[in-house]
Amino acid sequence: MEAATVDEYLQRMPEPFGTALREVRDRLVAAIPDVEQVISYRVPIFRYRGRGLVGLSATAKECSLLLMSPSAAKTLAGSLDEGSISGATVHFDPAHPLSEATVRRIVDLRIREVDAALDER
């Protein structure tokens, strides 16, 4: 059965993944104005202005922050102090959740992208 809410998704995560993802989720919620938390494509997605900003997931070995933007991944490549980027995803060890500073940097970049796309309409 798929999770219906972000909280349900995170509760179903085995440890240490659940704890790591909850920490990053809390940092995302604090950083994204008027955030909306939904499940989409079976993972938690954090919306800003009605658009998917970032998502969270985990594999058997690591946690992931889904950037949902190849251009953001390109901008951040080689410049993050933690995690690693593959495709449009930041991967991190569950023993070392992404810091508040890293989450805020990613969120700020994605917010600028969404604002620019919506404001040019």
Descriptors:
single chain, alpha+beta, Aspartate Aminotransferase, domain 1, six-stranded antiparallel sheet, 6 strands, DUF1801 domain-containing protein
Order of helices and strands: HHEEEEHEEH
Strand fraction equals 15-25%
Global outline: globular
CATH architecture: Alpha-Beta Complex
What this model shows, in words?
Residues 20-108 form the YdhG-like domain. This is DUF1801 domain-containing protein. Helices cover 40% and strands 25% of the residues. It has 121 residues and is of the alpha+beta class. The chain has one domain (6-119): Aspartate Aminotransferase, domain 1 (Alpha-Beta Complex), CATH 3.90.1150.200. A six-stranded antiparallel β-sheet has the order 1-2-3-4-6-5. A hairpin with a 2-residue loop joins strand 5 and strand 6. The longest helix is centred in the last third of the chain and has 20 residues, at 100-119. It is globular and about 40 Å long.
Short description:
Residues 20-108 form the YdhG-like domain. The chain has 121 residues and is α+β, with helices and mostly antiparallel strands.
Secondary structure elements and pairings:
Layout: H1 6-12, H2 17-31, E1 36-40, E2 43-48, E3 51-58, E4 63-66, H3 70-76, E5 84-86, E6 89-92, H4 100-119
Antiparallel strand pairs: 1-2, 2-3, 3-4, 4-6, 5-6
Helix pairs in contact: 2-4
